[in-house]
Known about the structure:
CATH architecture: 3-Layer(aba) Sandwich
Number of helices: 8
Radius of gyration: 18 Å
Order of helices and strands: HHHEHEHEHHEEEH
Bound molecules: iron/sulfur cluster
Distance between the termini: 31 Å
Strand order of the largest sheet: 3-2-1-4-6-5
Strand content: 5-15%
Helix content: 25-40%
CATH class: Alpha Beta
Amino acid sequence: MSEPAVSMLRPAKRAASAPAPRIFDQTDVGGSSDAAKARLEVLRARYAGADALTLLRGAIKTEFPGRITTVSSFGSESVVLLHLIAQIDPSVPVIFLNTGKLFGETLRYRDRLQDRLGLTDIRAIRPHPDDEKALDADGTLWSRDTNACCNFRKVLPLRRAIAGFEAEITGRKRFQTAARTGMSPIELNGPRFVINPLWDWSLVDLKNHILTHDLPRHPLVEDGFLSIGCMPCTQRVKDGDDYRSGRWAGSDKDECGIHENVEGDGI
Ligand code: SF4
């Protein structure tokens, strides 16, 4: 689809409003057992002040061996987290949400990173075909209801894929959205621990890591895309504009829902 045609179908512009803090960013979340909450405090004390690699190594090798996964969009900075994980254990399962709406460049970049980093367990998951047929037979739901589209293309498939894992590693950073400014390196999402090794990294830190290790960049970054998701909901970002302003541009949506607490939209 050409760029002008895509723009015409994008959701109508709405005045952006400040997002409310989400349940996920709170420490004492519903759905977490007392034992899990107690362990959270132990882990936070044990890894207080730890750098990203130390926290990751501890989570993968010591705290949750064989019971930890990561979810990657293979977007603009995904390579940083994947590079760190691969240094510790390239067999950590990497869940890749193939929504059916991704850029072709993202799929090719995923394959390139798999080869470069030696990742051995990338699990590509898709929306359930029954959901797709019932909810989005013509593939244009994103133009009418982005939350419903994200729910069946991302949230529900991930919920199925991540069941059984005790912990999840994310690449979320504090600088990305207003709601993420209060995040911690270790969190609880219902019964599952969430490890955020890049929580306090800046955009400059990420770029420096990529340059230092000569890591391949997503090909669309050079073309002006800073945060890369599905093709219909991602736009180029002008110099000086907010990092994620190209995602669901013009709407107040800034999260797809996969990082919401299970008491909210759910993983
Ligand atoms: S980002 Fe857009 S196309 Fe992708 S699942 Fe969400 S609404 Fe649908």
